[in-house]
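Revision sheet: structure tokens.
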Amino acid sequence: MKAKKSVFWKIYWAVVVLFLVTLAVLVIMGVNWMRGYEAAQPKHLAKETFEKVFADFDAAGYVDMCNSSGSKFETKENIVAYLENATSGKTLEYMRVSSTDKTTYKYIVKAGDEKIASFLLTEKENGTSKFKEYDAGGFEVFTGSKSAVTVTAPKGYKVYVNGVEAGEDCITEKDIETDSCKHMPEGVSGVYLEKYKITGLISTPVITATDAAGNGAEVTSEKKGVYSVALNSDEALKSEFNNYILEAIKKYAVYMQYDSTVAVMGFGQIKGYFDPSSELYEDIRTVENNFVIEYSSYEFADEETAEYVRYDDNTFSCRVSFTHILHRNGNPDYKDFLDMTVYLRNVDGKYLIYAMSQN
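Predicted:
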């Protein structure tokens, strides 16, 4: 007769079987979870993206798919040429770099030691997986800032780089005072400048500018990468006041080189050009002008007024320059080069000089 198994052993083996089944299920679930977790890691999408976009690199195609061309001021042709040159004969590699956005992974692409591009992996907002999902995008060309330029322009002017307007985001300094600000009457604003910085340029750019009315403005460059936009001269003012200002400043020059026998020019003969309420008026009236070089006659050369600027309906300035030549009885001529900016305001219906500054 067969012995019956005890209840203990029946329970024991049932528990063992249940435990093993449960363990097997948990192991399978854990393995599947780990596989899903590992597959969802951004590094795999980054590798896939790099191999798809950069392994067989097409510079023109890459520029077309970029969010930006690295610099909106550069032409596509220049950027493609730059990328082709940078990648020629070089192995491309990628690496992750820090990102300010916790939901984004950023990667840079290098050709040798030179960084040429970057892309992003951005977390999906409505992913279907229980793990975080990412989309590849944010492709950009990296041109660096070696070819950056700065442009200083009068406030209110527009600056264009290769035909593209430089916006507020390019301005690094605002309200830079010019010398005119030191000479303005109360309530009148002088000329302020703004400084632009444009980066990511590959070749020497074409810089142009316009004034507030849309007229072209002169752009000059004293050294590579540094440009200045000149203030447009008010030609209507020049037409009206050119002769008047030259007359005033030439008489002033003669007064400053006073000679009782050759250049008899007293203060009474020039005071009508200057604002009697200004400090300048008193400075000129009381100047010691009796100790000057001896000369037998004089003349003026290279007379010019320019850079007329209207600040309001009653105030303007202009630049006046000429050479005051003093002939000295057989000795070499003495040449006094005068170059100054004069400021005028309307005083009882007449424009009078109230300030001057040397250039």
